[in-house]
Design brief:
about 20% strand, alpha+beta, 8-stranded mixed β-sheet, 28 strands
């Protein structure tokens, strides 16, 4: 039988044959505690009963299961030989009846990669914590099932757990009895006490959004109440969970505040009451994603619990994620895409709704600025990679699906929806959503199902819009052309639209064009605006004819559409001198984003972008934009600056960051942001001595509190430059002997400038699977230091020798982390590009998902080399 990589064709064939009525899943996780035998993987018992129908009696199919062993299989009362029907990933089901009952008793393995049932041991107190993460297809690591989104069914879960644990799942649960019985699974000899938790049956949901969380979690509770216009009353129990070690940092009251604001907002706009009973939110350790929308039991990465001082941008990001996952309760959980081709039907909508509700319901009213500056940057990058794809993608199999949780599916899709709202109007858009929920509740949909309701509510032909925006790839560029008359006023203003040769689609854009002039006090302010439809290669904006000559023309003012903004020569010259004078924060964010795209496209030298950041970032009021500028400036220096200018640019960034740090308001979030940026830029002896002094208390900057998280941020550059050794890092871990502290220490250890250190880090990640997913991530992050290019050079050939083996032997999550994280991007030379091309030519038969990752990394490298050539040319001309 085929392996574990389920194809779309297989899924469609199975969905045409089977209908699932119910699941009953019984898990025994008492083996999670106690000593590990060390003999094979630690396992737990999983017993699954599936009741399903087959519309072709006598036909054959299969169930999915990834497990070390299967104890028993029964189909319609017939005992099957597991060795004959189970191949490690599938259970063969032959001679099916019209109505069927399948019972599978298996030994499933706990995970250390964040896929399936993840087991985490807290180094602080030795407590064990479990949680599940499945998307797109890892529930089969925990129980036997039909692992595809369109075979929905109600689920009943029962979990046996250690006596002092609490267990949560999608439905409301209760502990019904204590048990003391033999543990049949590996590592569970003898008898062990426990408790049995049973959970209410769920509504029909897909396998990938079922969930179990178990352990001695700290829990805070609250409730949400809503009385609707017809008098009906809805009460939703709320819960918020984290590890006991994080309880002292857990601001559950703010989590609940945003949760209630979101529930109010979505009830106001969706006209469909929250359908899944309770609403728990668990912040869990070693999580691969930002969060996951399991109905009734949302899981988040625990880094959203802040151990030290952070800026408001961090609180805004957390609120956005809370609302994003909440939007999924309707877009994704209530109504689910039929197959991963239409992943956008949940992720694009949730991404859009996250910002839409953030601005409409919470204190974060500038959420669209963050969207324009941060989310769209992700989309623009993804849409220019060789792996770009339409928002509605061609997903052949599960490996394709895993990689398509990308900037196209999330941020471009959300940007397209923002354009759709401008195109059809907000009222028509929301009424379409309401009809969509009511028409397809607990079902599965395709693109056409959504377009149908939008055509009904807007009266517009959605087919042409969908073809341009959802079924083609690539990003358009919009550039203003200004012709002035003899009187100095605008005679004609046009918008020129361009597309890449590989994706030539010129789309219809609803845009606002803003005209800006400098005032007598130096402010750069908008004095005219026109909203228009751009179509084809050139569109005249007749509404602006006769306006005063502008200093700046901003195409896509207010960020209505998805495009790369370009500037005419006058506008670009104005920004070079007066960017800090732009008074509107959204306009300023859009200009910064456009300048960054120019840098990435080798149209603006990296040194010019760095210079703009040094000159104007200190005047940036939006903290999220400021932190994004810091990240872009670092990336410009590391990847796009000419090698011969890097040292000069690095000194300039460090000096500028330190000057801004000293000038920032004491105790302000801007001071904190500049402190962190200074640490990333520090390399000179005096800078490193200052960081050391801030750590040991011999130096002080008024108002700057060097808390534990900031201490680790200062230690990484000290470790990377050989100032903080293993002894220093061990002492810091003793000071912060927590799971978070361990991750920081591992990253800093791998950052040290030693050949032996790099060899050890490589062995731990590439040649061993002993590290958990979180420590793999931390090791990779420390390994690749921009100041250590020569030290890392020997790993270029080793990378290409290893990646196919890693992809074959390790889980897809770890494979992705290694292939992306260890690509020799810092060996930015034509020779590395040639080595990449040689690998691709010699491995045409490699897994498509693996080739996609290498092609993406190759494209980033080629783009960096073009940027370096542009920057070098600027340096030559300046000289």
């Amino acid at each position: 039988m085929p392996g574990e990589n389920l194809s779309r064709d297989e899924a469609r064939e199975r969905a045409a044959l089977l209908s699932v009525d119910a699941y009953e899943v019984s898990l025994d996780v008492r083996s999670a505690v106690g000593e590990d035998t060390g003999d094979g993987p630690r396992t737990f018992r999983s017993v699954t009963t599936i009741r399903f129908r087959c519309n072709e009696p006598g036909a054959s199919s299969f169930a999915d299961l990834l497990a070390p062993s299967v104890t028993a299989v029964s189909l319609n009362g017939r005992d099957l030989d597991p060795s004959e029907v189970f191949d490690g990933s599938r259970i063969l089901l032959e001679d099916l009846a019209a109505d069927n009952e399948l019972v599978v008793d298996a030994q499933c393995a706990y995970s250390r990669t964040g896929e399936g049932l993840h087991r985490f041991v807290d180094p602080e107190d030795g407590e064990v914590y479990l949680y599940t993460q499945y998307e797109p297809a890892d529930s089969r690591r925990v129980f036997a099932n039909f692992e595809q989104p369109d075979l929905k069914a109600p689920f009943r879960f029962e979990v046996r757990a250690p006596e002092d644990w609490t267990v949560w799942s999608n439905g409301v649960g209760e502990r019904i009895e204590k048990v003391r019985e033999a543990l049949p699974q590996k590592g569970g000899g003898g008898r062990r006490a426990g408790g049995v938790w049973r959970f209410a049956e769920t509504k029909p949901i897909s396998t990938y959004i079922t969930c179990v969380v178990a352990g001695p979690y700290h829990q805070v509770t609250d409730s949400y109440e809503r009385v609707f216009e017809d008098g009906t009353r809805l009460e939703i129990p709320l819960g918020a969970l984290c590890r006991k070690g994080l309880a002292k940092h857990f601001d559950a009251e703010d989590v609940f505040l945003v949760t209630k604001q979101g529930l109010d907002f979505f009830h106001d706009h969706f006209d469909y009451p929250y359908p899944f009973g309770k609403y728990d939110q668990a912040f869990v350790p070693e999580y691969n994603l930002g969060a996951m929308e399991n109905p009734g039991m949302v899981t988040f990465r625990e880094e959203y619990i802040f151990r030290g001082k952070v800026t408001q941008a961090s609180y805004e990001a957390r609120a956005n994620v809370i609302l994003h996952e909440m939007a999924h309760m309707w877009f994704g959980d209530l109504v689910t895409m039929e197959w991963w081709d239409d992943l956008w039907l949940k992720e694009s909508f949730a991404d859009f709704m996250g910002s839409f509700s953030l601005v409409g319901a919470t204190r974060f009213t500038d959420g669209w600025i963050t969207f324009a500056n941060r989310r769209k940057a992700w989309a623009y990058r993804a849409d220019q990679l060789p792996s770009t794809h339409p928002v509605t993608a061609d997903i052949r199999d599960l490996q394709d699906a895993k990689l398509n949780f990308d900037g196209i599916t999330y941020a471009k899709g959300a940007s397209v929806l923002k354009q759709l709202v401008a195109y059809v109007g907000q009222d028509a858009f929301l009424e379409g959503a309401r009809r969509y929920f009511k028409r397809h509740a607990y079902g599965n949909t395709r693109l056409g199902d959504l377009l149908a309701v939008l055509e009904e509510t807007s009266g517009r032909d959605m087919g042409a819009w969908a073809r341009s925006w959802l079924q083609t790839a690539g990003v358009n560029s919009l550039t203003p052309q200004v012709v002035l008359g003899a009187d100095g006023r605008i005679e004609e203003l046009a918008v020129v639209q361009e597309a890449a040769e590989s994706y030539p689609e010129l789309r219809p854009h609803r845009v606002a064009v803003g005209l800006y002039q400098r005032s007598q006090v130096g402010a750069l302010e908008r004095y005219a605006r026109a909203e228009t439809d751009v179509a084809g290669a050139r569109t005249v904006v007749s509404e602006l004819a006769g306006a005063d000559a502008p200093d700046l023309v901003l195409v896509n003012d207010d960020d209505l559409t998805y495009c790369k903004i370009r500037f005419d020569e006058t506008s670009l010259a104005t920004l070079r001198e007066h960017l800090g004078g732009l008074t509107d924060p959204l306009a300023r964010a859009l200009c910064w984003s456009a300048l960054w795209n120019l840098t990435r496209d080798a149209l603006l030298p990296a040194r010019d972008f760095v210079g703009l950041v040094l000159r104007f970032a200190g005047r940036e009021s939006d903290i999220g934009v400021l932190q994004m500028l810091h990240a872009w400036a670092e990336s410009a220096l590391v990847h796009y600056a000419a090698p011969q200018w890097r040292e000069t640019g690095g000194r300039a960034l460090a000096e500028g960051a330190l000057a801004e740090l000293r000038q920032a308001e004491p105790g302000s979030e801007h001071q904190l942001a500049w402190a962190r940026f200074f640490a990333t830029a520090a390399s000179a002896p005096d800078d490193l001595e200052l960081l050391k002094g801030l750590l040991d208390g011999t130096e002080e900057i008024a108002g700057l509190e060097v808390d534990q998280e900031l201490r680790w941020a200062f230690l990484e550059p000290l470790a990377a430059h050989g100032v903080a050794d293993e002894k220093v890092l061990a002492a810091e871990l003793a000071r912060d002997d927590t799971a978070s502290g361990k991750r920081h220490q591992v990253r800093c250890l791998a950052a040290r400038p030693s050949a032996a250190v790099k060899a050890g880090a490589w062995e731990q990640v590439v040649d061993s699977d002993a590290l958990s997913n979180a420590l793999v991530e931390a090791t990779i992050a420390g390994f690749g230091q921009a100041s250590q290019r020569e030290l890392l050079a020997p790993y270029t050939p080793r990378y290409f020798e290893a990646i196919e083996r890693v992809w074959t032997e390790r889980s897809i999550q770890i494979g992705m982390d290694v292939v992306r994280g260890l690509f020799p991007a810092l060996q930015d030379s034509p020779e590395t590009l040639e080595a990449t091309d040689a690998w691709l030519a010699a491995h045409e038969g490699a897994a498509p998902a693996l080739r996609r990752l290498v092609l993406e990394a190759r494209d980033d490298l080629a783009r960096a080399l073009r940027g370096q050539a542009c920057d070098a040319a600027a340096g030559t001309s300046a000289g």
